[in-house]
Amino acid sequence: MTDLSDLPPAWSGRRARAAWPALPLLVALALWAYAVRHTDVSRLDDFGLVTALHPSFWAGLAVLTAGFWFTVRDPRRPGAWSAAYVLGLLVMERATQAVLYPTPLYAWAWKHDGVVDHLLTAGGLQSADQVGDMAVYDQWPGFFAAQAALVRLLGVDSAAMYMAWWPLASSLMLLLPLLLIYRTFTEDRRLIWTGVWLFLVANWVGQDYFSPQSVAFALHLGVLAVVLRRYGRSGGGRGRRGQAVWTAALSVMLVAIVISHQLTPGMLAASLLALCLTRRYRDWVPVVTTVVIFLAWCLTAALPFLSAALPDMLRSVGDVGGNVATGYGATPTGTGAVTTSWAARLLSGSVLLLAVVGVWRQRVLRHRALPLLVIAAAPLPMFVASSYGSEMIFRVLMFMLPGVAFFAAAALLPKVRTLAGEAREKDAHTTAPAAGRRAVRAGAPLLALLAGTLAFVPSYSGKDRINYFPPEEVTLVQRLFDEAADGSMVVAANRNYPLAYAEYGSIDHYWFLDDDRRHVDAIVKDPAATLARDMAGVERPGRAYFLLTQGQLANSEMNGQLTEAQLERIRKSVAASPRFRLVAENSAGVVYELRQEGGAAR
């Protein structure tokens, strides 16, 4: 008979302690799954997704953050657990919208889908004589050409089939280069993973959507990772052969950046130049390679756009106040818009303040991680260069964030380790304080981390009333473009509606809220007559259409343009005018057609 007394128990206390991090993670994901099943997004208010989310979402996010904090601080836990929590964070904060909303978010994502579709239809790049202002995308076609190839490879109708999941995919692309950058300066897993966490929750500016910027930023971090790890004094590949290999790798990434996005090469050149000013990075090969490739593209393919835009670009140089100003149509209006805007500001301000505290507290990092501090400061001079469509402040913040998040994480931790063998703890017993004191010390940083994690949601999703287009709105706009003949014109309040750039090679668009304020006032005063005059120049077989949708109303109202009452007055005036005929109408908007003089109404 077998004696079972000497066999180890099936689930020992050690195994239970080792698997403890799985419990909060699973609970958090279960609460998230319950929340997305019980959240109704059919009637969003001015707080966007914040007030629509089921309370279990917030509970799950709190459990996830607490589980991450106590897991990452425990030196006995493998780094895989921290990675699992970070992936859980990405799911909860970047995949929630893709699961909840039946259509892709954000008008600019739909615009880029239109560019991809046009590239597939046209079969090649086109000039300004053919597609007007939209030719700028043909002068930086890298992202769009890659997406056109992906659409054909997947066999889908358009990029709209997968672009709702792009924020999650583009955020995942950032993880590897970010980890490589942080590991260049420290082997402390607590600092690395807390820095990654803070980077993700502070990156609320929304450039992870389906856009060239999302890929260019990941490549930007990839270039910095290679330079920091392979071109410094202690970097590998110091021989000619090794440097040639890494320079070739850099060149491939640089070409992909330069042909895809206008701003990222400038930000990258500023960061690499700043690194060259430090003692550790005196190799000029990366910065020279970047500048040469950038200038080569600007003086060839991108020259038509730059020639036309150069006067305005030169006028904006040095105008710091104008470069950070918002202007008409970009001022949050209403309790929800103002509140979520302040949540974003406080989140960014808090992380920046934590970074200052981290630099002050962690003396060893001021020396060892000085290049990362330099990279964090390098984008600041871009405020002097351009307003970038009133978005420069957001872009500068995003490019500063990798360095800022690292030092902010250092502020939340006790004494950190840098490179191997430096300030290394001798063993867990000599460095770890007693459990009671450790719990007290962990309380304040945990509250700060939790506050930042929760603040991400209103900062990132607070404008979903503007960014979400219900299926009815997509159907309405699609019907318009199915009916519109080549040479037609679509007039709308603003461009905040799905498919706004569909068929832009053959259909013109006019958004009257982009016009001079005096003309907007004229439309408000006498809507039907003024719009009819604006739309009268369309020649047969083209037709002129007036489109007013739910997304336009939300954007206008929440950004301080026209109110709902004013837009409703415009709609009623058009509806009552004999010069317009109703084409389509549903719960998300209306389409009217201007009757052409001398022709029968259809």
Describe what this molecule looks like in 3D.
- This protein is mainly alpha-helical.
- Helix content is 62%, strand content 4%.
- It has 31 helices and 5 strands.
- The protein has helices at 13-18, 22-37, 49-52, 55-72, 79-94, 96-100, 107-122, 128-131, 135-139, 142-154, 166-183, 189-202, 212-230, 240-258, 263-276, 285-298, 303-316, 320-324, 335-361, 363-368, 370-377, 382-385, 392-412, 428-431, 435-461, 464-467, 471-483, 517-525, 527-535, 550-558, 564-576, and strands spanning 489-492, 508-511, 544-549, 580-586, 589-594.
- It has a 5-stranded mixed β-sheet.
- A hairpin with a 2-residue loop joins strand 4 and strand 5 (589-594).
- Helix 4 packs across helix 25 and helix 29 packs across helix 31 (564-576).
- The longest helix has 27 residues, at 335-361.
- It is globular, with a radius of gyration of 27 Å.
Shape: globular
Beta-strand content bin: under 5%
| Uncertain parts | 420-437
Q: Give the termini separation.
A: 94 Å
Q: Mean pLDDT across all residues, rounded?
A: 85
Question: Looking at the chains present, what oligomeric state does this protein adopt?
Answer: single chain
Structural class, by secondary structure, is mainly alpha
Continuous helix count: 31
Describe the largest sheet. Answer: 5 strands, mixed
Topology record:
Elements (H helix, E strand, L loop, with lengths): L12 H6 L3 H16 L11 H4 L2 H18 L6 H16 L1 H5 L6 H16 L5 H4 L3 H5 L2 H13 L11 H18 L5 H14 L9 H19 L9 H19 L4 H14 L8 H14 L4 H14 L3 H5 L10 H27 L1 H6 L1 H8 L4 H4 L6 H21 L15 H4 L3 H27 L2 H4 L3 H13 L5 E4 L15 E4 L5 H9 L1 H9 L8 E6 H9 L5 H13 L3 E7 L2 E6 L8
Parallel strand pairs: 1-2, 1-3
Antiparallel strand pairs: 3-5, 4-5
Helix pairs in contact: 2-4, 2-5, 4-5, 4-25, 5-11, 5-12, 7-10, 11-12, 11-13, 12-23, 13-14, 13-15, 14-16, 15-16, 15-21, 19-23, 19-25, 21-23, 28-29, 29-31
